[in-house]
Amino acid sequence: MHILIGGYTKHESAGIYQFDFIGADAEAHLEQRRNVVKVGGPTYFQKDGEFIFTIKNEDGQGGIASFRNGKLVSQLLHEGSSPAYVGINKEKKLLYTANYHTGILAVISYDEQGQLTLLDKVQHENRALGPRPEQAGAHPHYFDETPGGHLVSCDLGQDRVDFYGFDGQKLTHLASYQNEDGFGTRHLVFAPGGDYFYVAGELSSQVNVVKFDEENWMFQNVATYSTIPESWDQHNGAAAIRLSKDGKFLYVSNRGHDSIAVFAVQPDQQLKLVQRVSTFGEFPRDFNWDPSEKFVVAANQNTNNATLYERQEDGSLTPLEKDIAVPEGTRVLFTD
To answer: Family, per the entry (predicted)?
Structure first.
């Protein structure tokens, strides 16, 4: 098993790095860091077989690129900033990108050779914006699939979750769910049955639990929970959110408090705080787990290190290795 970590390339990073996952249980650790893809700004990426599909920036252009065995295969670049997120459907060979700076959502196909083709895109307009300084424009930060096969975006600037249909050629807006003003809607995850979703609010450092009827596009605001202690009075931004496959534990990273908040999901979908565990570094944007969800790796962007944890039966995280050197990490992905 391997772990891929990529991120910004503003300082010493050369792109995407791969680690070997060695050992078992409490003896697990990461070894042999090596730069496997040289690319500018791979802040988010996905993998399908031999192909890595990554965000890329180069010479004032941004977009998405495919790499095979470390070599560039195809790219779709445009003037300006690169996207912030890449989703994937490996069966349909589709990629979904959200561009925080331009407000554009895009659907891109790829073929057996990794060639990329833009299928459609939509522009989020700069209207119905939130009250915070960070919400001066539309800022979609997430674009991916729903349990029912539709598409969903999170817009930090508009405090909104938007749902789309895609017929293979064209995107069509279907419905919206509105978070509270200043929530800073960033990422979401769906409960295993698809009848609830959990939204991470970057600007409010909160998680909103929402009951969801995808057939009739009905929403019910269930409850909202803080990802940071009440006593915390410094800057914080909630970032990545993940839900265990059994739907019993929810995890959110805190950039500022520099922690991962762990919640147990109760039968009525209320959340109970289990733990806030340090990431032993600064500004943890992303974290991820292996297929068994036994091990978790969090990347600290500002301190150029990652932390490895073992996940316990009660959902809590036990640190195993704290100072794994990796520059400017913002994306973590376990691979074969």
So the answer is: Belongs to the cycloisomerase 2 family.
